[in-house]
Amino acid sequence: MGRIIAIASGKGGVGKSCVTAAAGAGLAALGRKTLMVDMDLGLRNLDTLFGMETQVLNHIGDYIRGNASLDEVITPVEAHPGLFLLAAAQYLDPSEITKEALAELFGQLRERFDVVLADCPAGIGPIFEAVIQNADEGIAVTEPVVSAVRDADKVLHCMEDAGIKYRFIIVNKLRYQLMTRSVMMSPDEIGEVLGVSLLGIVPMDENVIICSNSGKSLIGSGTPAGKAFERIASRMTGRAVPVPRLKRGRKGLFR
Ligand SMILES: Nc1ncnc2c1ncn2[C@@H]1O[C@H](COP(=O)(O)OP(=O)(O)OP(=O)(O)O)[C@@H](O)[C@H]1O
Ligand SMILES: [Mg+2]
Predict the structure, then answer these.
(1) Which of 21, 1, 240 is nearest to 141 (CA)?
(2) How many Å lie between the centroid of ligand 2 and the Cα of residue 146?
(3) In angstroms, what is the span from residue 11 Cα to ligand 1's centroid?
(4) Residue-wise pLDDT tens digits, 115-133
């Protein structure tokens, strides 16, 4: 039986889709048959992160409305054997994505995949709620700034209320220099405030933007962010890969 993992954030633009894409590619490289589900209806972008805009013919709405089979809405990501994409609908009324409809869909996906990563829209709206009602694990992505952490706290509480036992945070876009100057929160502080385990720390790295815009993968790129995402994918398979302890005043862990 596969695991359904909700990837969410309170604040927008913190990196959920990049986390979904990179963790998905990393998990597939580790031999886990992985599906990324783009739940960000109307604003879909997981397909663009893999340069697949023209390959995606059907989307989640086609399945939910009964117009296409599961095989017809799932597209393999050619560059990554073992990785698949279920694209978001460009136009779909969120009220069509009910808890029951997702339960049926996710039930089918659990049978077919080892891991299903659900890239949620920002915030705690109805689609996020429907996803977490059906997820086994939850990851809140945050930047190390107070407003994003506060919103991540809200997201994690919603996940807890929905009965998700395994909840984690990923701290993305960390700027080490700002952290050492106490301008940014440290990942350890964030973990303490939120009371959940750190799944990983990803530095602010222009390679994320370069790869996103060119459809290239961060996994195997040898970049600081790419290596951080590889470690995150390993931890998601249960491997004990320590999260670096970043202390203020220590230099250059991400260099
Ligand atoms: N570690 C990073 N370093 C530098 N840029 C990053 C990093 N992570 C994400 N970005 C950039 O931040 C922007 C937002 O990322 P992304 O789209 O993944 O966020 P999101 O949380 O999915 O946004 P939304 O809430 O709109 O769905 C993108 O331009 C992406 O390239
Ligand atoms: Mg997104």
Answers:
(1) 21
(2) 20
(3) 11
(4) 999 999 999 999 999 999 9
